Automatic annotation (TrEMBL):
Residues 2-62 form the HTH tetR-type domain. Pfam families: TetR_N (PF00440). It comes from the Bacteria. This is AcrR family transcriptional regulator. It comes from Rhizobium laguerreae. One of its GO terms (molecular function) is DNA binding. InterPro entries: Homeodomain-like_sf (IPR009057), HTH_TetR (IPR001647), Tet_transcr_reg_TetR-rel_C_sf (IPR036271). Keywords: DNA-binding, Transcription, Transcription regulation. Residues 25-44 bind DNA. Transmembrane segments: none annotated.
Length: 186
């Protein structure tokens, strides 16, 4: 059976989503995709090597969703669309791959830890870039960081309490914060 690298990464993403970093195993992944464990190790040296690729796929999906159809749109529309793309991917199936990995990796898995950091840093930088034309870069960094924290917190409420409205409240509150920051800058 021929299994592509993309299929392995997609299956690893689901395994990380379901079991977190610590609970995921190369044997379970091999079983899931129908490969022998040795064949899997020929493509990925260990579980940690999967993390950067899993997060890169998730990042590209998120940014593509965020940017789709926003060319020339006012900042408010592009910012809210970006927030919704991030929120959607963080809360997908009540499990956030990025957060599972953020809490599961450590100094003992430096490549995975760096991939998680880069994932969230890129999301933050994307939001800052959308806000910087309408407010100071320092203020944009604070508003973007607060938005990510708020959305990540809402992910917890979705997962633990099945409070899907929490994500909408987080997006709306983040949007209001950005509007207030723009008004203050004027």
């Amino acid at each position: 059976m021929k299994v592509t690298r993309g299929e392995i990464v997609a299956a690893a993403r689901e395994q990380f989503r379901e079991k977190g970093y610590a609970g995921a195993s190369m044997q379970d992944l091999a079983d899931r995709i129908g490969l022998k464990k040795a064949s899997l190790y020929m493509r990925f040296s260990n579980k940690e090597a999967l993390v950067p690729e899993v997060l890169e796929v998730l990042l590209q999906e998120t940014l593509s969703q965020a940017e789709a159809g926003t060319s020339g749109a006012p900042w408010q529309i592009t910012y809210e669309k970006a927030l919704r793309a991030i929120a959607g991917n963080l809360a997908e199936r009540k499990r956030c791959v990025g957060l599972h990995l953020a809490y599961g990796v450590s100094d003992e898995t430096p490549a995975a830890k760096e991939a998680v950091r880069n994932f969230f840093q890129t999301l933050r930088e994307h939001l800052i870039a959308l806000l910087s034309p309408v407010m100071s870069s320092d203020r944009a960094a604070l508003v973007a960081s607060d938005a990510l924290a708020r959305i990540e917190g809402a992910t917890l409420l979705v997962a633990v309490f099945d409070d899907k409205a929490a994500m909408e409240r987080a997006v709306q509150a983040s949007r209001r914060d950005a509007d207030a920051a723009v008004q203050k800058a004027r």
